Amino acid sequence: MMDGGQMANVKKEAKLNTLCYQCLGILLREPQSGYDIVKQLEPIRPVNTSQVYPTLTRLEKQGLVKSEELAQTGRPNKRVYTVTEDGRDVLTDWIGTEPDPPVLRDDFLTMLYSAWTKDPEEVVAMLERRLDYLHATMQWLETLLGEHRARYPEEIKNPRDWRFFRNVLLARRIANFQEEAVWSRGVIHMLKEAMSHD
Amino acid sequence: MMDGGQMANVKKEAKLNTLCYQCLGILLREPQSGYDIVKQLEPIRPVNTSQVYPTLTRLEKQGLVKSEELAQTGRPNKRVYTVTEDGRDVLTDWIGTEPDPPVLRDDFLTMLYSAWTKDPEEVVAMLERRLDYLHATMQWLETLLGEHRARYPEEIKNPRDWRFFRNVLLARRIANFQEEAVWSRGVIHMLKEAMSHD
DNA sequence: GAATCCATGTAATTGGTTACATGATTCA
DNA sequence: TGAATCATGTAACCAATTACATGGATTC
Questions:
Q1: What is the three-class DSSP state of A15?
Q2: B104 DSSP β-pair partners
Q3: Looking at beta carbons, which residues of chain A come within 8 Å of B198?
Q4: What is the rounded distance in angstroms from the CA atom of residue A38 to the CA atom of residue A44?
Q5: Cβ atoms within 10 A of the Cβ of B19, count?
Q6: Which nucleotide comes closest to A55 if you measure CA to C1'?
Q7: Residue of chain A with shortest Cα separation from B26
Q8: Does A107 contact B at CB distance below 8 Å?
């Protein structure tokens, strides 16, 4: 309050990376520890503790989050982080700005890129294993989505509640995997067609 | 030929990253320069020259590619790289191994994750701008795919030709964008529904 | 006259992964 | 008895981006 002008400066100087905004977003839903964040972030963006802990320390130094030690019995103490007013402002100022184009890193597709050097049968086998992976991941995501919808049947309809966006973002990922499964089956079909003409 | 045993060792020691395999794959299609690789890689995986040039130097030191200077008139000389036998072996040995799970980096989705802090109208505006981006990118990819299919109508049917895989991989990216566009319109619809009930 | 294309690189910095260190509790 | 979960961190390394440097040819 007293040094509002200085705080505004801090806000403008801060150039944060994606992980910072992801941490702020997750902590705004509910205050929690670095360990919790890593687990919550797993379905969206796998990240290591060795990256999260220093990030939280940095955010605290910048005054965007604050923390307090929470004593626990039978397990190690927790350091629980909460988003400050400044942190919330930095996050909401960022939302709506022009994002960088999305980037997909997928070694499987890199392999397919040069799969013309392989026997078509081998490529079919690769795609079939990929389908197994896609189905397994989809089932996991569908379980998460089902639980979410069962637990918050009303909140997921309210765009002012974070559960609305968790609902649609989970649905999007599932649709994405579904679409890749359809495509994979199409490519398998094309490969088998071509093989039958030899 | 003389030191085949040593070469086999080199092959096994080499632990390459994704970019290395992408460079080997692109050079196996056709020998070309670092500059060419950056441009060819653009629709799949945007990468800087400052990462590609050192990578090619490293691959050459490992004997996986070889290069020769190509004199040009009216423009700078080119260093054209070609994949060696060892390089081809390293690449084909890698294809078919278990790939790391794919990772999507997308700041737009990170923004949506915390978009419950914003007015639903603002979120609708964000999604509509996203649709513009999606349509523009799709049109670009569809142009590339159309040209490819027109130029190689026979080759794209042959799974022993790299053009087959370029065809299906481009189609996959387009389907992906298409699917996200459908999803975006769905979310816009849900937001407008919720807004009308206030 | 300014911007873009062609062409190759180095240096500095940030982002991200892997390995290491510690230690109690719970479950198979 | 060994593995997994909870919990926090540091150190070393590899991956990737940004900035810098150079310079002729072409296009607007």
A1: coil
A2: A104
A3: none
A4: 10
A5: 17
A6: C15
A7: A114
A8: yes
Neighbours of A22 (CB within 10 A): 25
Question: Which among A103, A173, A126, A127 is positioned nearest to B44, based on CA atoms?
Answer: A103
Q: How far apart are CA A7 and CA A13, in angstroms?
A: 10
Identify the bridge partners of residue A80 per DSSP, sorted by sequence position.
A68
Tell me how far CA of residue A2 lies from CA of A5, A6, A48, A82, B76, in angstroms.
8, 9, 38, 21, 60
Q: Do A25 and B114 touch (CB under 8 A)?
A: yes
Say if CB A111 and CB A129 are below 8 A apart: no
Q: Gap from B73 CA to D25 C1', in Å?
A: 10
- DSSP secondary structure, B91-152, as one string: HHHHTTS-PPPPEEE-HHHHHHHTGGGS-HHHHHHHHHHHHHHHHHHHHHHHHHHHHHHHH-
Output the CA torsion sign for B60, B62, B65, B68. positive
Task: For residue range A40-91, list pLDDT tens digits in order.
Answer: 999 889 999 999 999 999 999 999 999 999 988 888 899 999 999 999 999 9
* Closest residue, chain A, to B89 (C-alpha): A117
Using the beta-carbon criterion (under 8 Å), do B105 and A103 form an inter-chain contact?
A: yes
Preferred mutation among B92, B104, B173 to probe A, highest tally of A CBs within 10 A = B104
CA distance A95 to B116: 11
pLDDT of B141-196, one tens digit each? 999 999 999 999 999 999 999 999 999 999 999 999 999 999 999 999 999 999 99
Å from the A56 CA to the C21 C1': 21
Residue B158 exposed, middle or buried by CB count within 10 Å (0-12, 13-18, 19+): middle
pTM (predicted TM-score): 0.92
Q: Which residue is nearest to nucleotide D14 (CA to C1')?
A: B17
Give yes or no for a contact between B107 and A18, defined as CB atoms under 8 angstroms apart: yes
| B183 in A contact zone (CB under 8 Å) | yes
Token digits for B112?
């949506």
